[in-house]
Structures are given as C-alpha cells and as structure tokens.
Amino acid sequence: MSQGPDPRQPAASIQGLIGEALRETNELARKEIALFRAEMARNARQLVAGLACMVGAAVFAVVALLVLIDAFVKWLATVVGSEWLAALIVGGTLFALALGMALWARSVLSLSTLAPTRTTRQVRQDAQALSERVSG
C-alpha cells in the first residue's frame, strides 16, 4: 500500500539540497581561488621574465651605444686629424644634448605643469552653474 508523501520528507530534502548547494558553492569557490592563484603565479613568472629581458636589452643597448660612439670618435679623428679633438667634439656634443634634455625635462616635470588645469576649470564652471540654478 502506498501512503501519501510524508510531510517531513520534503523539508529534509530541501535541507539536503541547500546543504549540497552550499558544499558545491564552497568547492567551486575553492577551485576558482586555486585557478586564480595558478594564473597569477604564471603571470608573475612571465612578468619577471619580461622585465629581465628588458633589463638585458637595455644593457646591450647601452654597450652598443658606447661602441658606436667610440667608432664615431675614431672616424672623426681621421677627419680632424686628432683623436683627442674628436673625443672632445663628440663628448661636448653629447653633453650639450644631455643638458638640453635635462632642462626640457625639468620644465615639463615642474609642479605647475602637473596641476589639473582643465579639471579645475570644469569644476569651477560646474559650481557656478549649480549656484546659478540654486539662486535663480
């Protein structure tokens, strides 16, 4: 004989379903965190490798630049007839270039050029428009 459903059975079943959903959610969250950690570790390794390559490239670029400057000095020495004069010309030119770049960088990096002038102007206009609406 079959009897009707036990009224306590659905409550236990709902509790079981809720408990299982919570366990699965917890397990899913743990797996997502593990995936996040693995991906971040891989990304960090790639970042370190990329930075190491950039540093290596910069070192080689500086060495190459020094070799090219030396070759230019030697070529200029054959033109002017004196190696020390050629070195003085190249060194003075490079020094003037460096000084010009430093002065330009100082003017660009001054605090007055870093101030957000457009934003300040826009905030003033907005404040003026709001005060006109309130008073008008």
Report on the architecture of this protein.
The chain is mostly helical and 136 residues long. It is built from 4 helices and no strands. Helix 1 (8-80) runs antiparallel to helix 2. The protein is flat and about 100 Å long.
Shape: flat
Number of helices: 4
Helix content: over 70%
Q: How many strands in all?
A: 0
Unreliable residue stretches: none
Through-space gap between termini: 84 Å
Mean pLDDT: 87
Q: Beta-sheet strand percentage?
A: under 5%
Order of helices and strands: HHHH
Rg from C-alpha positions? 36 Å
Quick one: biggest sheet? Answer: none
Characteristic terms for this protein:
0% strand, flat, mainly alpha, 136 residues, 90% helix
Compact overview of the structure:
The protein has 136 residues and is an all-alpha fold.
Write the layout of secondary structure elements.
Blueprint: H1 8-80, H2 83-108, H3 111-114, H4 117-135
Helix pairs in contact: 1-2
